[in-house]
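Anyone have tokens for Carboxypeptidase? Sequence:
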Amino acid sequence: MRPEPWILITVTILLAILFQTFSTAKSAYEADRIVNLPGQPAEISFRQYAGFITIDEKQHRALFYYFVEAETEPASKPLVLWLNGVVGFVGPGCSSIGAGAFCEHGPFKPSGDLLLINEYSWNKEANMLYLESPAGVGFSYSSNKSFYNSVTDEITARDNLAFLTKWFTKFPEYKNRDFFITGESYGGHYVPQLAQLVIESNMKFNLKGIAIGNPLLEFNTDFNSRAGFFWSHGLISDSTYEMFTSVCNYSQIRRQIQNGSLNHICSQVNRQVSGEVSQFINTYDVTLDVCLSTVFSQSKMLDKLQDREEIDVCVEDETAKYLNRKDVQEALHAQLVGVTGWTVCSRVVSYEMQNLEVPTIHILGSIAKSGIRVLVYSGDQDSVIPLIGTRMLVNGLAKELGLKTSVPYRVWLEGRQVGGWTQVYGDILSFATIRGASHEAPFSQPKRSLVLFNSFLAGKALPQP
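Reply: yep, here.
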């Protein structure tokens, strides 16, 4: 029995609509596919995408992303968003692509005209999405320049959510994928604030967990722990430590400098501390050497005796050169709007510095109570946001939430060596250190950072003796 003609016509129309919808969705992201990055190794099999997502049509505000599919079986791997920040005196506003993707845990690291394979890239375990946020950072831009005059956490979180909404529309196959939001430094604000918005907005994102490294969570606790870190590492004397804790602490110094009102007493303490620490120490990793030609740019090869890994500490300079090449920008579907060059940290964004004093530790608590796993980790050689304050804050949060310790403070292993220490509260909140790691932990300890990342995604305990 042959079907009625109207049935055949209806089916044909429906199939045509479905095909058109699929083709439109596919073409939407295929236009962003990277054919080949200049200097890229020939044997790469995973797909890469990059481009702009317009988040405000009226203001012509667009955020730039770089997306790298997992090396193997991307269809079965989770999606991970990475957000960089910075808590140096330049304020928040550094590139997740320049720092996270090309200096830390992306698939490649620039070296001269070439891209070298990163053996410990996080896309071995996940589909990695790097976002330059807020507008004014990296390639992201606002045609309305007044936007840059006062950027806030609230604006950044809102724009990041708008980006995600539109990105998932462009890549619909990832909308129901296990989703994690990760970051470091001022990501201690960006990550939980965005996660909270996702939860409150009831977006149909399958958010499973958040992870933040060396995060700014509470202004006074985080910054005042610097004194104990300096002293315990032999960077300052007993008398200076006493001054730094009783006469004028670092949160006072930091606050006064931000407000342009450093008083005489705090200025004296700051000079004393800076003089003893010296300009020849990289405060983001007090064990890492600096370049002999300039103390502000790390540019020589180190052989870390702990694990015999070579670390190119000039990779940030190499990245800036690479991303300013016209052929690279064309391959990335990127362009410079309103700026003369790409920079790791924005020179146009004026971030509302009072936002640094907004505590985010309690947002972690509300996220954990909603059933989303929370990991806070620290590179243990970072004096900018030392592990001392971070561990104290996480431990205090666990007590506040009434979470019992499920994994007592213990070492965890990377291979046969100690990778760091960890403590877990309930099955929802955990803290870990990465031994020998800097503020940007995956940069200085890539192998150990990958072990931590893998365990986090899998929801498994870190390896133990």
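The chain has 14 helices and 15 strands.
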